[in-house]
Design a protein that fits this description.
With about 220 residues, the chain is an alpha/beta fold. It contains ten helices and six strands; from the N terminus they run E-H-H-H-H-H-E-H-E-H-H-E-H-E-E-H. The protein has helices spanning about 15-30, 35-45, 50-60, 65-75, 90-95, 110-120, 130-135, 140-150, 165-175, 200-215, and strands at about 1-5, 100-105, 130, 160, 180, 195-200. It has a six-stranded parallel sheet, with helices on both faces. Helix 8 (about 140-150) packs across helix 9 (about 165-175). The longest helix is centred in the first third of the chain and has 15 residues, at about 15-30. It is elongated. It starts with a strand and ends with a helix.
């Protein structure tokens, strides 16, 4: 049994880590609550290009850093703060004991995402990590999903679990995966629905286990 799973805001609370970092960085450089709100709203769960955020911060804050230096800070400042959602590490370890092969499939830079895997403790419970920069393809491209399960054996189509409708769910569907959407309380309004969905990663994983048991 093969489980592909997204990293940011699926296994780890990326947005929480970024918010914690921003809450220290902005006031330390003369920013206001309005500046902090702008940064968090414009961040786009990490999908807004870091250069866009850097340009905005250079206009708003008292900074001596160059644009390129600020981009690096925005990429890496929060990475050491990420933590798994409660119970996720334990659930993944349980799945592994039951014979599941676990693969993280994440967009991003190798150094940034590898750091998150390390500090979150996920390295100890994951069989393979596939990062878009390393394979030259980003979700929702089919190529990154195929790279994730290359050489791995699975009797049934793999599962893909994630929080992004396009990158994780639609991408997984096109690649031939069954899908589990971590909704974080949002309603599905994005076309073909996932195989299972629930507000949290733990709930999605439990639904997948139920589905496999029923089958």
């Amino acid at each position: 049994m093969l489980l592909l799973v997204d990293l940011d805001n699926t296994l780890v609370d990326r947005d929480g880590a970024f918010a914690d970092w921003a809450a220290e960085f902005v006031p330390a450089h003369g920013g206001t609550e309005a500046d902090l709100r702008w940064l968090l709203e414009t961040d786009g769960h990490g999908y807004t290009h870091r250069a866009v955020l850097a340009d905005g911060l250079l206009e708003r804050l008292d900074l001596t850093a160059t644009r390129d230096e600020l981009v690096q800070t925005l990429l890496h400042g929060h990475a050491g703060r990420v933590r798994c959602y409660d119970g996720v590490l334990e659930k993944l370890a349980e799945l592994r004991e039951q014979g599941w092969t676990l693969v993280v499939v994440t967009n991003g830079r190798v150094d940034q995402q590898s750091r998150k895997m390390q500090v979150s403790g996920l390295e100890a419970v994951i069989d393979r990590v596939v990062i878009s920069e390393a394979v030259g393809a980003k979700k929702p491209a089919t190529e990154i999903f195929h790279a994730a399960w290359e050489g791995l054996q699975a009797e049934q189509p793999p599962w893909m679990v994630g929080d992004r409708a396009t990158a994780d769910i639609h991408g997984g569907q096109v690649a031939g995966c069954r899908t589990g959407w971590v909704s974080h309380g949002q309603a599905w309004v994005f076309g073909e629905p996932p195989t299972v969905q629930a507000p949290s990663t733990l709930e999605v994983l439990d639904l997948i286990l139920e589905s496999e048991g029923a089958r």
